[in-house]
Amino acid sequence: MKKFRLERKAGSSGISVLLNSVLFVLLALVFCAFIIAGVGFNPLEVYGKMFSKAFLSARGVRKAIESGLPLMLCGLGVSITFRMNLNNIGAEGQYAVGAIFGGVFSLYGPKIEGVPGILILAVCCFIGGAVWALLCAAPKAFWGVDESITTLMLNYVALILLSYLCLGPWKAKGQNVGQTEKIAEGLQIPEIAGLKVSMAFPFVLIVALLMYFFYKYTTSGYQINVIGKSLTAARYAGMNIEKNILLVLGLSGGLAGLAGFVQYAGITGRIQENMPNNAGYTAIVIAYLSRFNPLAVILVSFLFAGLQNSSATVQVMGVPAQIATMMQGAIMIIVIAGDFFLRYKIVPAKKGGKSK
């Protein structure tokens, strides 16, 4: 019986990576089409309705951008840790704590409004997310505590704290749901004139560009990439692993905290009990699909937000709202499977050799 083994490919160009992703996304859509047909609906009709409402109308595009802003920032935050082979599963909680720190400033801080006030609010949200991440970074850096567990568990603490505040001392008077009073008008992020899109969108684009240049042109960005590829080589080169763990997790948490800023000051205008709404967990999928590229994170987040929004559109056809979630999961699994074929090839095993 002929034996085969896996052989790692030398490398892949950016074009081949892109084409591979597009191919396996299309395969995922074909797979989902069979599921949709299996529950009694026409896949072409469902896809047409979803994509036309989400991406082919001005209102749909605006809603996809708006819904995608927190996903973009959480995705940028999560992707930086994955680049260094760290697992930040806590973007959900960091998002919540970022919003809480922003709430402390807006509710109890000095009445500074306009551009200075908005910038201070952003810094508060960033600090909140960073502090929450550093609670996990320090044990990881100095005692080797698994960051996957600590970041995940702190999500529950943060969400309970957010729920307590929104249902308790911060709850707006006369409201039946857990949310704060409307943020002061002078702290709200304005819209781009004529486009009806929040100024938070160009802000997020600038953050993504800064992350791109950080990876490509800074010493810290270079060290993150080296540590992610080979911890042994990084130690041999004299890189400070502990410092980089603190830097990466702190920056990751801060970016997730900024998701609370754009949601609070740019979209809802209130801190709400269910504000993160699984954005931190969805960001993990987005980071993997974008291959940790900050510019790709923007595009993938936009597409995911559009898919989420389209679930309400197809409900009027009788299609279960969970179809959009199923599509997200299928795309992730199939694209990651496609990544395997991009990295490895199957070759016949040599005589006398062992398959790997």
Structure description:
The chain has a two-stranded antiparallel sheet with strand order 1-4. Strands 2-3 form a two-stranded antiparallel ribbon. With 356 residues, it is mainly alpha-helical. 71% of the residues lie in helices and 4% in strands. It is globular and about 75 Å long. The model has no long low-confidence stretch (mean pLDDT 90). A hairpin with a 4-residue loop joins β2 and β3. It has 13 helices and 4 strands.
Overview in brief:
The protein is mainly alpha-helical. The protein is built from 13 helices and four strands.
Descriptive tags:
356 residues; two-stranded antiparallel sheet; 4 strands; globular
List the helices and strands and how they pair.
Blueprint: E1 4-8, H1 14-38, H2 43-55, H3 58-83, H4 91-108, H5 114-143, H6 147-167, E2 191-192, E3 197-198, H7 200-217, H8 219-229, H9 231-236, H10 241-268, H11 279-289, H12 294-315, H13 322-343, E4 344-348
Antiparallel strand pairs: 1-4, 2-3
Helix pairs in contact: 1-13, 2-3, 2-12, 3-7, 3-10, 3-11, 3-12, 4-5, 4-6, 4-10, 4-11, 5-6, 5-10, 7-8, 7-12, 11-12, 11-13, 12-13
